[in-house]
User: Fold these one by one.
Assistant:
Number 1:
Amino acid sequence: MIPWLGIDLVFPPITSALRDPNGLLAAGGDLSPERILAAYRQGIFPWFSPGEPILWWSPNPRMVLFPDELKISRSLARVLRAGRYQVRLDTAFAEVVAACASTPRQGQAGTWITEEMQAAYTRLHELGHAHSVEVSMDGQLAGGLYGVSLGRAFFGESMFSWRSDASKIALAHLCEHLKREEFGIIDCQMETTHLASLGARAIPRREFAAALDRLVPDGPPPAPWRADAVADAFRRT
């Protein structure tokens, strides 16, 4: 059994999360900005399917990507140098989230990015906490990602690709931006072989929680991300 959350913002300790399914911690509550941010600060995130109550997770181990450990293949490096794309930040947040929700994924029959989740993260974006990276090709949105920024930690939520390598381009530019801003970690939540191929690795939950203690102090969100901040990160001059 897992506890149901009350009207306050108190979560159970992450060490009480279930082993099977890995990381299930609590149910209920709401998706208010205050609750979601309180969850992220403790290494907890919401994840549930349509028709389920809101479920809160803190898996062990935790999949993370350190920005300077991104693996860029030779073929992707050529794509990045060629620069036949445009990258922007926070100019099409709602469109990126909707694309992540609607893009079919191998092995998944539906999406966990419900309308309720889309509305919740759009509100976080309006408050300066959630951000998107958008990749355009030939003037059309081709791929991107979104997540939540707190302190010097970025909590990745989802990515999509409608053109070859578009989501990888977005991730590469995100890592460059985060390195310049001295971010220490990207939370990838669950282990996948795809993320591992890009340099992400699993670390014990206690190490992840300790990293958040260092990287996520209490306080206001950082300054807004500039839309052109990553535009020329890989192009030859």
Note: The helical segments are 33-41, 74-82, 93-102, 115-126, 166-180, 193-197, 205-215.
Number 2:
Amino acid sequence: MKEKILVVDDEKDILELIGFNLSNHGYSVETAASGEDALELIKKNDYALVILDIMLPGIDGLEICKIIKSNNQKTDVPVIMLTAKAEETDKVIGFEIGADHYVTKPFSPRELLAIVKSVLRKKTRKEETSVQVIEHNDLKIHTGKYEVTVKGKPVELTNLEFKILVTLAKRPGWVMTRYQIVDAARGEGGFVTDRTVDVHIASLRKKLGEENNFIQTIRGVGYKFIESY
């Protein structure tokens, strides 16, 4: 079965170029020229990957990426941001909301194809090894379903909050620096600041409610997940 890829760009030539190259290498390709059209397709279909331009009419690519990564049913869909913006701050924003890779226009079709293959291989390996149920007291984490419950009630987390929680919970008792947390949660190539980690941890604790004591702050170092309290 062919892996289905959605390509979103308001430039017809770009859509045709990417679509032609991906189709020639065995992928099933669908395209959208606006953010609204892309969201409709994403809602109705299961894609192996989304290639997403930032500068789109209507809803922009960053907002679409944020919507994908905040949806528990779609959060594991890799997103490659395709854009003419090359400033580091734009890349920071893209990675912060969960983008898996960043390609700057103009680009080589061969380079993009190699990145697509690499991202899909990484996704496959992750799916094969990541399914795990972690339980501590009334906290339950199902890594395969991207589900977190406290006393049986679902807790809605962002993609990055979920990854940070899993990263800590898989290593109870280990003290991890902020940069170690983000590297483990997102993988190499991500952009992060100390402040970003602190903000996500604070939001995570708030959402976990009475189970937030599992995450302890180690002053001057980072955080750790304790096995019981």
Note: The chain has two domains: 4-129, 131-225.
